[in-house]
Design goal:
The protein has 327 residues and is of the alpha+beta class. It has ten helices and seven strands. Helix 1 packs parallel to helix 4 and helix 7 runs antiparallel to helix 8. The protein binds fe (ii) ion (FE2) (2 copies). Keywords: Hydrolase.
C-alpha cells in the first residue's frame, strides 16, 4: 500500500515517549487475543536488525491496521511506552510495505562470515585422523552446503539467533573444546573437534531466513539433531570405520545432554560430555551477553536490571555495562 525504502528509525533508537510515523519494521510474532471485556486485540513483536520490541494493537486501532504475518515488513505508526520494566509499542496504524531493504531487518553476527569460516578451517586443519578429515571435506566441499552453513542462525530466538550465528556458535564450541583438551589431554581431539564442527549441522535445514528467521516445516517435524545425524551418516565416505562413526553420531545425538532437551541419548563418553558442556556454555553466555547489551541499547539506561529472561530464568544486572557504554 505504501512505500518507504528508507528506514530512519531502528529499534535501538527508541525511547519511552517517542512517537513514530510510518516506519518499516518486520513482524516477528502476531497473535489475536480477546480481552476480559470481550474485545479483540493483537499481541505483536516487531523487529529490525538492531533488535525487537513487543507491542499491542488495541481494538480501537484495529481498523487502521492490516493483518500482520510473521516475516512481512509493515509501515508502522505508534507510541513507545514502558510496561513492566521494558519498552513496548502501542501501534496506531500498520500497512504492508511494498519495498524495503532486506538488510535493514535481518540481524547478522558481529564477525564477517568469511573470516569466521577461515577460523573454522584452521580447526579442521588440526584434525589428523584421515576418516574425519575426509568426512569434513566431503561435507564442506559442497558449495551450496558451505554457503548455507555460513549464513545459518543457530536458533530461532534463544541464542545466536542471527545470520552467521551457527558459525559463531560452532567456533565457540571449538575454542571451548580446545581449552578443555589442554586440561584433559587424553580426550580424543579429532573426535571432539569433528563432533563440535558437526554437532548442529542439521540447523542448516531447520531454519529459513529472509527478513527474519523462521523454522522450516522440515525443521518443525524432524529437528536438527535428527536431520544432522541423518545427513552425516549418509554422506560418510565408504569404508569409514563403523566404530568411529558410531562415536561421532553419539556426539551429535547426545549434545543436548538430557532427553527433555531433545537428545535421544545421554552423553556416554568423555568427549560427549565435553561437547555438551561447551555447547551449553556457548549458548548461555551468548544469551546473557546479547540480552544485556540489547537492553542497554533500547532505552532502559535508567534501569539497573533487565526484564526477566525466560531461558536464563532471571533478570540481569545491567548497571556495570551501562557505565562502560557511557565512557
Ligand atoms: Fe543443538
Ligand atoms: Fe549447539
Amino acid at each position: 500500500m505504501a512505500n518507504n525504502l528508507f528506514k530512519q528509525v531502528f529499534i535501538k533508537d527508541l525511547k519511552e515517549g517517542d512517537r513514530i510515523s510510518g516506519q518499516p519494521f518486520v513482524i516477528k510474532s502476531y497473535r489475536t487475543l480477546t480481552s476480559k471485556n470481550n474485545k479483540q486485540y493483537i499481541d505483536i513483536t516487531i523487529g529490525d536488525k538492531t533488535g525487537s520490541m513487543k507491542g499491542k494493537i488495541w481494538s480501537d486501532n484495529l481498523v487502521n491496521c492490516q493483518e500482520g504475518r510473521e516475516g512481512d515488513v509493515f509501515l508502522i505508526s505508534g507510541n513507545i511506552d514502558s510496561f513492566s520494566n521494558s519498552l513496548q509499542m502501542t501501534i496506531t496504524s500498520m500497512f504492508k510495505a511494498d519495498e524495503f531493504e532486506v538488510s535493514d531487518f535481518l540481524q547478522v553476527a558481529r564477525e564477517n562470515p568469511d573470516e569466521m569460516y577461515s577460523q573454522l578451517t584452521q580447526f579442521m586443519a588440526k584434525i589428523e585422523d584421515e576418516d574425519f578429515k575426509d568426512l569434513l571435506e566431503t561435507v564442506f566441499d559442497d558449495e551450496n552446503i558451505r554457503n548455507t552453513f555460513k549464513k545459518a542462525p543457530a536458533a530461532f530466538t534463544v541464542h545466536h539467533s542471527y545470520a552467521g550465528g551457527l558459525l559463531e556458535h560452532t567456533l565457540d564450541c571449538l575454542v571451548l573444546a580446545e581449552s578443555l583438551l589442554e586440561r584433559y589431554p587424553k580426550m580424543r581431539k579429532d573426535l571432539l573437534f569433528t563432533g563440535a564442527i558437526l554437532h548442529d549441522f542439521g540447523k542448516i535445514f531447520e531454519f529459513d531466513i529472509s527478513t527474519t528467521i523462521t523454522i522450516s516445516d522440515r525443521g518443525k517435524l524432524l529437528g536438527h539433531i535428527y536431520m544432522g545425524t541423518e545427513y552425516i551418516s549418509k554422506i560418510a565416505p565408504k569404508g569409514f570405520d563403523q566404530e568411529k562413526l558410531n562415536e561421532l553420531m553419539h556426539l551429535l545425538l547426545s549434545h543436548h545432554g538430557e532427553l527433555e532437551f531433545g537428545s535421544p541419548i545421554k552423553p556416554k563418553t568423555i568427549e560427549a560430555v565435553a561437547l555438551w558442556m561447551a555447547d551449553m556454555a556457548s549458548a548461555k553466555v551468548n544469551m546473557a551477553y546479547n540480552f544485556t547489551y540489547d537492553n542497554i541499547g533500547i532505552g532502559n539506561d535508567d534501569q539497573n536490571f533487565s526484564p526477566y529472561h525466560k531461558h536464563l530464568a532471571t533478570d540481569l544486572y545491567l548497571k556495570p555495562y551501562i557505565a562502560e557504554e557511557d565512557e
